[in-house]
Amino acid sequence: MNLLHDVVGPQARRRTAVLEVGGYALLVILGWVAVARLAAHGELSTRAWEPFTEPGLWRLLGEGLLNNVRAAAAGMMLSLSLGILLALALLAPTRAIRWPARVLTEFFRSVPLLLLLYFTSLVLPAYGLRLSDFWFLTLALTVYNMAVIADIVRAGVLALPRGQSEGALALGFSPFTAMRLVILPQAIRAMSPALVSQLVILLKGTALAYVLGGYVELLRSATIVGQYFTRSALQALMVAAVLFMLVNLALSGLARLLERRQRRRYGLHTVARAGVELATVPAVTR
């Protein structure tokens, strides 16, 4: 069996343990200093957190978070649909289709999402395209993420055994029907953890809607709270950060759950030695 890396020896493990302890200690010290500074400026006082006892404030933050989720859901559905089509173009046997698709994919993967958002909200209206800020945000998210999803789906298709497509063709399926009914469902199912992880990235990207000004998402809601309760501006941003973290952690947990299901479904297990994960190989049934 080919190993991806060497097994870590006892001396290296001790050195790693020392570095880990030192890193955790540094984080504790920095956290203590930050808390002390915040307490010295009254940021942890009851007065600074008093506005968060009002239900209306939480309703505003909840509506902002819901707007983030709505934009992320719309962007994910559109980028998944267009990403699959772009992946089919990347897999096309004809160079006239495959090369333009590769150029399109690499271009949109290289352009920052913020720049795409500025383009959709500032340039497109100059050419007569009038949309709401929600759709400007969704369009930028779709264009950026469809390129990433296209490469994910393409990798999933190429990772399948050739026998899948050859078997479908032997049964009389056309290449398009084999791709639609046999190859793509398996590829998308196998790459579902990566797709969910991309949803986490997409959800975090919705925070860039703050630059639009007209779309009240979570960061904009926290800013409104900070403008109304000036004494609690930092606290509002802290609450927004925690809400973002909770949603992203839930999605990351879903990705790990899907990955474990894929391992069980296809009979995969991890070979480990000396506490180091080495490789994932098919489980052997005796």
What does this protein structure show overall?
The structure is a single chain. α10 (218-228) packs antiparallel against α11. The chain has helices at 10-40, 46-49, 55-90, 95-110, 113-126, 133-159, 162-170, 175-190, 192-205, 218-228, 233-265; strands at 268-273, 276-282. β1 and β2 form a beta hairpin. It has 286 residues and is mainly alpha-helical. The protein has a two-stranded antiparallel ribbon with strand order 1-2. 74% of the residues lie in helices and 5% in strands. The radius of gyration is 24 Å and the shape is globular. It has a single domain (54-282), classed as MetI-like fold, CATH 1.10.3720.10. The protein starts with 9 loop residues before the first helix and ends with a strand. It contains eleven helices and two strands, in the order αααααααααααββ.
Brief digest:
It comes from Dactylosporangium darangshiense. The protein is mainly alpha-helical and 286 residues long. Helices cover 74% and strands 5% of the residues.
Key terms for this structure?
transmembrane; 286 residues; 2 strands; AA_ABC_transptr_permease_3TM; MetI-like fold; two-stranded antiparallel sheet; MetI-like
